[in-house]
Amino acid sequence: MPRAVFLYSEVLAGFDYGxxxxxxxxxxxxxxxxxxxxxxxxxxxxxxxxxxPADDEALGLFHEPEYLDVLRRVSGxxxxxxxxxxxxxxxxxxxxxxxxxxxxxRAAGATLRAVDLVADGAVDRTFQPVGxxxxxxxxxxxxxxxxxxxxxxxxxxxxxxxxxxxxxxxxHHGNGVQExxxxxxxxxxVSLHESGETLYPWSGAETEIGEGRGEGFNVNVPLLxxxxxxxxxxxxxxxxxxxxxxxxxxLVLAQLGADTTVSxxxxxxxxxxxxxxxxxxxLCENAPRLAALGxxxxxxxxxxxxxxLAWSALSGLAPEEDYAALLGGAMxxxxxxxxxxxxxxxxxEPKERAWEQADRVVSYLQRTxxxxxxxxxx
Length: 378
Ligand SMILES: [Zn+2]
Prior knowledge:
Elements: E1 4-7, H1 10-13, H2 27-37, E2 46-49, H3 56-60, H4 65-75, H5 82-86, H6 100-119, E3 125-128, H7 149-159, E4 164-168, H8 175-180, E5 187-194, E6 218-223, H9 229-247, E7 251-255, H10 273-286, E8 290-293, H11 300-315, H12 321-327, H13 348-373
Parallel strand pairs: 1-2, 1-3, 3-8, 4-5, 4-7, 5-6, 7-8
Helix pairs in contact: 2-11, 6-7, 9-10, 9-13, 10-11
Bound molecules: zinc ion.
């Protein structure tokens, strides 16, 4: 039995949002190719699988039927309308794309397969790079996300009677997931992200901790612009392991967006691949059963390298970089940069402010959320 499965669909990776759109599913193909060149499939521990599409019913676990109806119609070629626009379809961020409904079925199908493999005990960990569409709501599209595959998977797992912790490392707040499970105590959501004061979706303050039965089960860690590896990894270690330890989920669903990094064109955090890798490694240490999804990442070269490091952590295999460089092949230029970066620490006043914000948020969570979950101070 392999320890980890990489779920890859050429149809998913090949779907094109358009030349001018920053979201590139193709990153998944680049990441898989880099994993292959680094020898990260050369073990019985690590295998690959081609997932199939979900059906309409599966999307209906999370989404309103009226929304899916509009989405199907624009996918079939129906032009712009006020009805579509009211559902977030036909904007710059979510343009009307022919075939988008099939893409959504396939993305959700891959994510459902990824979580079921782990929930069934078939493998310990999975990686599904074309997933993690955490912004879509039950009845609308936003932020490049037409359906919320994480929401679909969480509803599915909840129906199976499982307790799930959702850990979201994308630079953007996971607003769609938060909103959908805000009053739920069987889904713990933890999102580390750039503060909503400077970045879409403008939400995710530490004070948003859930409501009703779900109070304390929604955790936000908003970080300041220019937060670097040192601050990020420190916050991660102080918040995520104690909460997972207290909640004791049956499995962890992670969103491993790589748009937290220093060269990302859409965000303002300053992680390197090293900080990203350290956080994913720490997550693996604290989540024995883990289904991981790709998410954002708009420097496509760095994202491929981050996801290669993520797959290395998930599979427990060390990358053979020299081997990869020797083989060369179809990838050129920035694809050949080393997997690990030289450190890029933030210095001076911005660093002090990043520390102050991080310490203040951690302290707030330790006073409010930790006692509700029975989490221990590290
Ligand atoms: Zn993002």
